[in-house]
Amino acid sequence: MNKTENTQIKQNEEKAEERDLKELLRSRIKDIDSIPTIPAILRPLLHYMEQTVDQIEVQKIVELVSCDESITAQCLHMANSPLFGRTHEVDTVRGAVIALGVRKLRDILLSCLLVRLAPKERWAMDPVIFWQHSFGCALVSRQFARKINYHDPERAYLAGLLHDLGEVVNCIFLPEEFRATVEKACTEQLPFFEAEQATLGLTHCDSGKMLAQHWGLAEELTSVIFYHHDVEQAKLHPVLVAIVSLSDTLCRMRGLGYGFYEPKQTDFLDDPAWRILTREYPHMAEFDLARFTFELDEYTLQVRELVSSIFSKGS
Amino acid sequence: MPCRLRRRWLLRVSDGIDGPLLGSKGAPQLTHGELRMRTETAVPAENWRRLGKAPDPYLQRIRDVVYQVAGIFQSDENLPFLEECARKRMQAVDANSLRQYYDRLTVRRDREAELHRLVGEMNLGETCFFRNPLQLEALRRVVLPAICQDKNRPPCHHVRVWSAGCATGEEPYSLAMSLMETMEAEETLQEWTFEVLATDWNNGFLEKAKEGIYSLHALRHVPPSLQQKCFRPCRDQFQVTDEVKAMVSFHPLNLLEEHSVSWAKDMDAIFCCNVLIHFDGSAQRQTIQRFHDSLLPNGYLFVGNSESLYGVSDNFRLVHFPGSTAYRKVCLQSPAAGVI
User: Fold this and answer.
1) Nearest CB to B319: which of A255, A266, A286?
2) Are residues B142 and B97 located together in one domain of the fold?
3) Measured torsion, CA atoms of residues A262, A264, A265, A270, in degrees rounded to the nearest 10
4) Nearest chain A alpha carbon to B17
5) Which of A82, A254, A291 lies at the smallest CB-CB distance from B14?
6) Site from B320, B327, B328 to mutate, A interface, most A CB atoms within 10 angstroms
7) From the candidates B72, B136, B141, B325, which should be mutated to test the interface with A, based on the most A CB atoms within 10 A?
8) A181 and A192 in contact (C-beta within 8 Å)?
9) Does B45 share its domain with B101?
């Protein structure tokens, strides 16, 4: 057998392994609802939030939240954080709905629930760092969306929060393999999706998409989850994908990354996501990115405080 | 008749954290009243609540004016500090409220002089070794490899870095120490040579810098391994070793004089931190253009941590590194002459 044939066989084997891993992941994801740590209210709530605000009943939300004491406590803790713009101390879920409005409470609730998605012991990486990045990306996406006059900043928050959902999936369903990925990323200071490609043959974008489809998440959220590292391929909702993709990079550049130094320089004007937004919003040419970057540092501190306090109270 | 405001005043108008963050390039010149209306910003309420009180909206407007004119941004976290500085100046100019002081900064004839007095009050010139460690990290781990890759053709194994406005020498020595450390750690850099040009207009500062003697306080951010390697005890203070000194050359230079700057050529990177904030708009633009001329194609300009060149020059592009930013020289491509 010659060298070329050997290489061919090896490549075929690798492709088969990759397919196997995807199949395995797909079959495991079907069982996600049976994992005891996944809060029972998460799935109904994810569907419920797809309704327009005027269709949402306050009472229904209060009931959903109040069925779990620790979720209620965590939810109120977040509601009292300056990041969600509280106007005065709230001590009941109903009070939080009235003070903050249904949409903000929905964001808070989902944030609390997602933190519980994978228990601490399952994490191959520090969950505090992961959630700091996800919350950071959610807040930066919302702020960025506001700055450029995107029509739905709250949607950008949600998309930012969920963009790395696939990392959670990998933690839950491929714990051993993912541990090796995290180690590779940290040692070689690689972005996760590159390390995943090398060790797993699939990325958190693939696994996130599988869970998003299994849960029946909105098309635009699935698009963000799948394409945030390959923005140009996003045919559906490219603007939202671009907002989250840029916010993701900004977070990684401003201290809300994956906990290690990524030795690279980013010229946002060269980023395909920036080009997409400039096409959609011509006034982006005048965007003061330096100032926006300075303003984000305020978030960095607050996000760190908030996530650390959530975890110090035990999730 | 009110005098017209400088272009720079008009370029930097933005709408605070909750409004669109867009400049107004190409906008017609505005009168004082119009300018004031446009600089009045929405209060970023969510960020202030953590301080337990609502911010004075005029403090935020003062922050915006400082950013527009001096190019230095005070984050919400720093607003109490800005207020402290503003209140010291308010006493000096007999202003009874932040609103009155804001008027001083925007309406009065001597508004620009007062703004520079306020910036002076912020005492941003105070320096120490490794003042901005993430900037040095970017130099070592991102910029230097990029420069070396670009220049990796003998006999050009030489890197030149300029510390413009080096004051008493902490910045250029920090640069030299970082470069030395990288050179020792990287086998591929053994054949390379590094040079730090350090300039300041103040001869007194330069004398102190050449002497290289500092208090322990100035060394507080120096990594312990470098403290041992790069300093030796000198009476009750510390002196930079001759090995580090040999990498740095100090020269008097006034950034505002063209002939004085023109010999500083072929730079790979320039560090000019918290210097431009003391210049007026036209001096800033001229200096930036001189830096552009001094840099090699794709060279880097590092400014202070909260400084911005937005609206000052289109000849540089903002680049982000983890925890820091810099400006990269834009090279215009000319088909006949190549890069210009």
Assistant:
1) A266
2) no
3) -100
4) A295
5) A291
6) B320
7) B325
8) yes
9) yes
**A255 touching B (Cβ < 8 Å):** yes
Give the pLDDT score at B28. 32
Nearest to B21 among A84, A147, A266 (CB): A147
Assess whether B149 and B211 both reside in one domain: yes
Q: Which residue of A has its CA nearest to B50?
A: A82
Euclidean distance between CA atoms B101 and B97, whole angstroms: 6
Domain containing B245 equals 133-339
| pLDDT at residue B121 tops 50 | yes
CB neighbour list of residue B141: distance below 8 Å, 6 or more residues apart: A261, A263
CA distance B128 to chain A (A): 22
CA distance A260 to chain B (A): 10
The answer to whether residue A188 neighbours chain B at the CB level (below 8 Å) is no
Q: Which two tokens stand for residue A282?
A: 């011509």
Max CA distance (Å), chain A: 75
- The pLDDT confidence band at residue B31, using thresholds 50, 70 and 90, is very low
Number of domains in chain B: 2
Structural domains of chain A, with CATH: 20-33+120-315 (1.10.3210.10), 39-116 (no CATH)
Quick check: A146 and B18 CB within 8 A? yes
Q: Quote the CA–CA distance of B328 and B332 in Å, as a whole number.
A: 13
pLDDT digits (tens, 9 = 90+) for B33-89: 333 333 333 334 444 444 455 678 999 999 999 998 888 888 888 888 899 999 999
A262: chain B residues, CB-CB within 8 Å: 322
The answer to whether residue A269 neighbours chain B at the CB level (below 8 Å) is yes
Q: Does B134 contact chain A (CB < 8 Å)?
A: no
Distance in Å from the first CA to the final CA of chain B: 43
Q: What interface predicted TM-score (ipTM) does this complex get?
A: 0.82
Is the domain of B307 the same as that of B202? yes
Partners of A289 on chain B (C-beta within 8 Å) are 310, 318
Is B2 a domain residue? no
Residue B127 lies in a domain: no
pLDDT of B19 reads: 37
CB contact under 8 A, A268 and B25: no
Which residues of chain A have a CB within 8 Å of the CB of B137? 261
* Mean pLDDT calculated for residue range B299-321: 93
A-chain CB neighbours of B19 within 8 Å are: 147
- Termini Cα distance of chain A: 56
Q: With an 8 Å Cβ cutoff, is A148 touching chain B? A: yes
Q: What tens-digit pLDDT sequence spans chain A (315 residues)?
A: 566 666 776 677 666 666 777 788 877 777 766 665 556 666 666 666 666 667 777 777 777 777 667 677 777 777 777 777 666 677 777 777 777 777 777 777 777 777 777 777 778 888 888 889 998 999 999 999 999 999 999 889 889 989 999 998 888 888 888 899 999 999 998 888 999 998 888 999 999 999 888 878 889 999 999 999 999 999 999 999 999 999 999 999 999 998 889 999 999 999 999 999 999 999 998 999 999 999 988 778 888 887 887 776 554
Q: Are residues B115 and B139 in the same domain?
A: no
Looking at the structure, tell me whether residues B107 and B171 fall in a common domain. no
